[in-house]
Design goal:
By secondary structure, the chain is α+β, with helices and mostly antiparallel strands. It is built from 17 helices and 45 strands. The strands form ten sheets. Strands 19, 20, 23, 24, 25, 26, 29, 30, 31 and 32 form a ten-stranded mixed beta sheet that branches. Strands 33-38-39-40-45-42 form a six-stranded antiparallel beta sheet.
């Protein structure tokens, strides 16, 4: 009775304090994560307090293994007591965390009135913590013997039957590490909703394991575990120019699994992989992450993953369980937003071409798979060919995406699933170990069939990162551009950022560094980028060199890399720091950034480097590679110097700040004509890149900006840039007094422009400016996607403050551009949602801004704008706001309305 009263009191306390209680508790930037290996996990929260001037004066974190005790303020693992601080990101510093343990935590904060507010209780659960804690061994099937593993096509099944002896199960966790891909089943039910697990890494250097809560899937008595293994990038059986079919790690897929069971009586049991498991070949007769999947339903074995299944013909002498060495010495927890089937997309139309061929149109371009259902005779062969475009006769055309397809025979057609019917009523096929880029699906049958749109559905797949950004304007083209670029970004996020979802699926570094701000304004992607930077650390050679695609099979160290591409090692950790206020990734990558900068220095001549690809796929003008690569060399050295200051590395800070200045001087001495204030030949990339990255001497910035504007005017207010120039051109204009011109360029609807793609039916961003280019024409690329971030930075004016990162202080510089009547821009920062919206009212502008609790902002209005009245959302008008230099204000947390003219 006493415990019930205590619980009721706790609930009443939580309800009473709910108004301003801390909210959105995260551990390692995830909600109640399972299986973490981090000894000092990061704990974050935000203050749910909409009052004007809301701040956090202090916090207290309570951590323990008893949720009720934590709710009552008793932390047996860690209790910070009251800490006078406004921090909302704190690393755990309590007792040593134990493996396989669930910890509960609560944060209590003292608000602006020094009133204590308590959060609900959150949790995190540790995993292996140490590779020595694994009990299972790595197993595969007999096709891994005698070096023949890479030739066997069918995917292997594995099963294990065990008996809990009638005990009642309290909890159960499955820990599974795989070289390749997998699907895990418990008693016939698939575990979790992840797709393409585990995420792709450099398999011989780091392997990921995944943790699942399987308590509800187990039953008292007889149980069965089923595992289906796929190839993924581990056993690449299709040929391609990037040599993944020759990767040094290639082998038959293998896995290791521990199932931890805790019973109500307190006893524990571990069911682990060993020789007692059973194996058999599956109906997945071929699977390739690069091309497609083939499935023969006639080979299905109903109940293969359930208890009581007759497994007497499994583990034949030709196909036994074999023990394998672990693929790497580092088996670490996968802690990131997983890939999922995120959005179901019904077919919009279907066209019959003949009695055996139908063409489905999803109405939009996506990355993912098609799900097909049909009833037919056993042995009927269905081919599902996926394409982005149709030819002039209405047939799917893959000529724009098959440039790197290198078939050795006709058994592995590109982007074409093969489904052989089992003849058992209505059958459904959806590939398990593949994804594609497509809008159209050609369904061809070996026998006549009748189809409708109901027979095929598309699934948009990607890393399921939470959306945190929003853009809406009075211009429908701008709105569609924002949506299309986000679709392209997500289509190229599969545990690492890729270039395209069909032709390559590779982690091209240049594409990713250009798109990083677009990514972080729109999606909570820190977990994916932390994983990808670990891939960088795995791939970096001792001399500092990185490959141009990451992860890599070994290709890319000799072509396509260089500062303009592989500056990802510096740029991405830096932007993660700016957007999240979290320096851990910078700390993890510090030595890698330093080695990379030193590597460039070792080959640079008098501060300049020619190492790189240059302004990839320009409209027409060419910019010297030495120019753009040297600018990125400067960027890397600058980031390294700032990071050294952040971590108190004084000698490094001085060394690399001096190096950055040397590079800057070298660029300006060679390429800048000080008399004319023109770089090189004065083309858009040459003029905008040094403005974007701070290379231009301060005394010439206005003149260089004016010359850039004149150049754009002479180019008919259209783009004349490639990849690197795309990052710079709009920012360089809008940040230097030419926001109207920048908007005009961004909103163009004829060639060359982003709008040109949209008016021609694009639902994603393209790889090339011409829509009829003869090559380099994937229709789902993110590399020209910086314009999306520009909407946030220029139209909404929302920018992180490097001096108070993570939007602890927001820099607001909205541009009320001619051509728009209203704009709404929102970004969910670590402190809460930032809103910047404006609307024209005849000659006036109504500008509304919201700054979240425990944050602040420096607002800088255009010089020509006059403030008529400032009102709080609650109607208060007698405000005494701190003025900034020029036409600006310092804002506390709250919602404001500015009446401007």
């Amino acid at each position: 009775m006493k415990s019930i009263i205590t619980i009721v009191n706790v609930l009443i306390f939580c309800i009473l304090t709910n108004a301003q209680q801390p909210d959105k508790l995260r551990c390692e930037h995830l909600i109640n994560p399972l299986g973490i290996d981090e000894n000092s996990p990061r704990l974050t929260w935000l203050l749910n307090d909409a009052r004007f001037g809301a701040i956090q004066n202090a916090y207290r974190i309570i951590v323990g293994t008893d949720s009720l005790a934590v709710a009552l303020g008793q932390g047996t693992s860690w209790d910070t007591q009251k800490v006078l601080s406004d921090k909302m990101l704190v690393s755990y510093q309590g007792q040593q965390l134990q493996p396989f343990t669930k910890y509960f935590w609560q944060v209590r904060v003292w608000d602006k009135d020094n009133v204590e507010q308590s959060s609900t209780v959150a949790s995190f659960e540790t995993g292996m913590m140490n590779i020595d804690n694994w009990k299972g061994v790595w197993i595969s099937d007999g096709h891994g013997l005698n070096g023949k593993s890479i030739d066997v096509k069918p995917a292997p099944y594995f099963r294990k039957q065990f008996d809990t002896g009638g005990k009642t199960i309290r909890s159960a966790r499955a820990y599974i590490a795989v070289a390749g891909l997998y699907e895990l089943y418990i008693n016939g039910e698939k575990t979790g909703d992840h797709r393409l697990d585990p995420m792709y890494t450099r398999f011989d250097r780091r392997t990921l394991y995944v943790t699942f809560d399987v308590t509800q899937q187990l039953q008292s008595g007889l149980n069965a575990i089923g595992v289906l293994l796929g190839n993924g990038w581990y056993n690449h059986q299709s040929t391609a120019v990037w040599f993944f079919d020759r990767a040094p790690w290639r082998d038959r897929p293998a896995f290791c699994m521990d199932l931890h069971i805790t019973y109500q009586d307190g006893s524990k049991e571990i069911v682990a992989t060993d020789r007692s498991w059973r194996t058999h070949l599956s109906p997945v007769i071929f699977n390739s992450i690069y091309t497609a999947e083939h499935y023969d339903a006639r080979l299905e074995q109903p109940g293969w993953n359930k208890a009581g299944f007759d497994e007497s013909n499994w583990n034949t002498r030709r196909n036994p369980i074999i023990l394998r060495a672990a693929p790497s010495e580092r088996i670490v927890s996968q802690q990131l937003h997983p890939i999922r089937n995120v959005e179901c997309i019904p077919a919009q139309s279907v066209m019959q071409m003949n009695d055996t061929t139908w063409i489905f149109d999803l109405g939009r371009n996506i990355a993912g798979v098609s799900e097909f259902n049909i009833q037919g005779d056993a042995g009927t062969v269905i081919r599902l060919k996926h394409a982005e475009i149709l030819d002039k006769n209405g047939w799917p055309d893959m000529s724009n995406i098959e440039a790197h397809y290198r078939p050795t025979d006709n058994s592995d057609p590109f982007q074409t699933d093969i489904f052989i019917l089992g003849g058992n009523g209505v059958e459904t096929f959806m590939p398990r170990f593949n994804y594609k880029g497509f809008q159209y699906v050609q369904v061809t049958s070996s026998k006549p069939l009748q189809l409708t749109t109901a027979n095929l559905t598309g699934w948009f797949m990607h890393s399921d990162v939470p959306p945190i950004g929003h853009v809406e304007t009075s211009n429908p083209i701008i709105n569609k551009m924002w949506q299309a670029s986000n679709t392209s970004y997500l289509s190229n996020l599969f545990g690492y950022p890729t270039d395209c979802p069909q032709r390559e699926k590779n982690g091209w570094t240049g594409d990713a560094q250009i798109a990083i701000e677009t990514a972080l304004y729109n999606f909570d992607g820190i977990t994916v980028y932390e994983k990808w930077m670990a891939d960088h650390r795995d791939e970096q050679q001792p001399n500092g060199v990185l490959p141009s695609i990451i992860p890599s099979s070994g290709w890319g160290y000799e072509w396509g890399n260089g500062p303009d591409w592989t500056s990802t090692i510096a740029i991405i950790p830096w932007y993660i720091y700016l957007f999240y206020g979290d320096s851990r990734l910078l700390a993890d990558c510090y030595d890698n950034i330093r080695r990379y900068v030193d590597c460039i220095t070792g080959t640079a001549i008098e501060g300049l480097t020619t190492w790189g690809l240059g302004d990839w796929i320009p409209v027409k003008s060419k910019t010297p590679i030495e120019f753009t690569s040297s600018v990125y060399y400067f960027v890397d050295a600058t980031i390294l110097a700032k990071t050294a200051v952040l971590f108190g590395k004084k000698a490094d800070a001085e060394k690399y700040a001096a190096l950055a200045q040397t590079i800057r001087n070298a660029i300006n001495n060679k390429y800048l004509n000080r008399a004319t204030a023109i770089y090189g030949e004065g083309v858009q990339t040459e003029m905008s890149v040094p403005l974007q990255w701070g290379v231009v001497p301060d005394d010439l910035r206005m003149k260089v900006s004016a010359n850039l504007a004149r150049r754009v005017e002479s180019d008919n207010k259209h783009l004349d840039v490639g990849l690197l120039g795309t990052k710079a051109i709009l920012n360089a204009l809008s940040e230097n007094g030419y926001s109207d011109l920048a908007y005009t360029v961004a909103a163009q609807k004829d060639f060359p422009s982003w709008g040109w793609w949209i008016v021609n039916g694009a639902t994603t961003f393209y790889e090339n400016w011409p829509i009829d280019a003869k090559n380099d024409l994937s229709l789902n690329h993110i590399m020209f996607g910086e314009v999306n971030a520009w909407f946030f930075k220029a139209l909404g004016g929302i920018k992180p403050d490097p001096e108070q990162p993570g939007f602890k202080n927001v820099i607001l510089q909205p541009n009320f551009v001619t051509g728009l009547t209203y704009t709404t821009v929102k970004h969910q920062s670590p402190y809460g949602e930032i809103v910047s919206k404006w609307e024209r009212k005849k000659k006036d502008i109504i500008y509304a801004v919201t700054i979240p609790a425990n944050s602040s902002a420096d607002l800088y209005l255009p010089e020509q704008v006059q403030v008529k009245k400032i009102t709080l959302a609650d109607g208060k008008t007698n405000l005494s706001l701190q003025k900034n230099t020029g036409n600006g204000y310092h804002l506390q947390a709250g919602s404001y309305i500015f009446d401007l003219k």
